[in-house]
Amino acid sequence: MEVCRRMDRVPWVPHPTAEGVRIKPIITRKDDGLDVTCILVAIPAGKEVGEHVHKDQYDILYPLAGKAVMWVDGVGEFELAPGVAVRVPNGTKHKIFEVGEDLLIYDVFCPAPA
Known about the structure:
Blueprint: E1 13-14, E2 22-27, H1 29-32, E3 37-43, E4 49-52, E5 58-72, E6 76-80, E7 86-88, E8 94-110
């Protein structure tokens, strides 16, 4: 297991469900043997991550750049921008939309998806 990983050597890959959105794995169960997954998520202006649920994982988001609107079931809509940390409980519907500026998110899933 690498202690230090240069992110400029890790490729961006397409998001598995959101068209035009890319992800960059930082830490994964498969590569690092840890029970957490950390990724960067790049959502271009005008794109979105539609409503979805992570059945078994908490989804912890911290935007590094950009602006959008996020909706979390039971909470409602709020601005997603740098300085806002979001914790979506497992089994909770959520989405990211109205991306007005290219959005870059540090995203953590705990426990790691299978």
